[in-house]
UniProtKB/TrEMBL annotation:
It comes from the Bacteria. SUPFAM superfamilies: alpha/beta-Hydrolases (SSF53474). PANTHER family: PHOSPHOLIPASE-RELATED. This is Lysophospholipase. It holds the Pfam family Hydrolase_4. It comes from Thermolongibacillus altinsuensis.
């Protein structure tokens, strides 16, 4: 886990990365937030990045992700500023499940193409095999099927990823079964999501996450403030796409609005 500090910061953003990747792929986004007056806290999820070599692509339980994010939020609390969560893809699912299970002091959340369903699932025979292996050989790994070509149209990012030794290309049977279970629970326990401002930004041409599942989940939310923004033609990694500056500006505007509303509430409380 690392921290990046901004001058005259007005808030803290905790970034939760997606599957196969690591927080090092978010240098551009981290710097944009920092220059906009936000501290940033980010780290590598268990089984990814620099957290391990032997267990890369494997977790025993999705709870490992939840505990990691909770620890990052606890670190963000030390800044004594409003905290926002930002999760991409798997990280978006992790944010959802964390908020459903923990009561964290966060002002709002941003989900980027959250993994609430997949465009392509394994065949029925492979799915059955994964259920069996989950009990007898849970650490058995297989190709994830994810590729940088499916993730972004940004050629510069594609080239960097092809030479990234930390990029996870194989995942374990247990990892997959835990992912599927977490997606199911995220839908089933939708009422357990706390009532906080939520921005969901979804890639319009997502080749990894099923955008219809994301929209269906969003439509069922009973929140006081929720915003859904679909970005036409953009691939899965909206913060890496050629249009990423527009995407960032939208996210920044959402955060700024929440801070302004918080100031109004505080000033009205003081006047009573």
């Amino acid at each position: 886990m690392r921290k990046w500090e901004a001058e005259e910061a007005k808030g803290t953003v905790v970034i939760v990365h997606g599957a196969a990747e690591h927080h090092g792929r978010y240098k551009w986004l981290i710097e944009m937030f920092r220059l906009s007056g936000f501290h940033v806290v980010a780290g590598d999820l268990p089984g990814q990045g620099t957290t391990t070599r032997r267990r890369r692509g494997h977790i025993d339980s999705f709870d490992e992700y939840i505990e990691a994010v909770e620890s990052w939020v606890n670190e963000a609390k030390k800044f004594y500023l409003p905290i926002f969560l930002l999760g991409h893809s798997l990280g978006g699912l992790v944010v959802i499940r964390t908020l459903q299970e923990k009561r964290l002091p966060v002002r709002g959340a941003i989900l980027s193409s959250p993994c609430l369903g997949l465009v392509q699932y394994p065949t029925k025979s492979l799915d059955l095999l994964s259920r069996i292996l989950n009990y007898v050989h849970p650490k058995k790994r297989f190709p994830s099927g994810l590729s940088v070509e499916l993730a972004t149209r940004n050629e510069e990012v594609r080239e960097m990823d092809k030479n990234d030794s930390l990029y996870v290309t194989k995942v374990s049977v247990r990892w997959y079964r835990e992912l599927v279970k977490a997606i199911q629970i995220a839908h089933e326990k939708i009422a357990d999501l706390p009532d906080l401002p939520l921005l969901v930004m979804q890639a319009g041409d997502d080749k990894i996450v099923d955008k219809t599942a994301v929209k269906a989940w969003f439509d069922q939310l009973s929140l006081s403030e929720k915003v859904y923004k679909e970005w036409p033609k953009l691939y899965h990694e909206i913060f890496n796409e050629p249009e990423r500056e527009q995407v960032f500006l939208y996210a920044q505007t959402f955060l700024t609005l929440q801070l302004q509303r918080g100031e109004l509430v505080e000033s009205s409380d003081q006047s009573i």
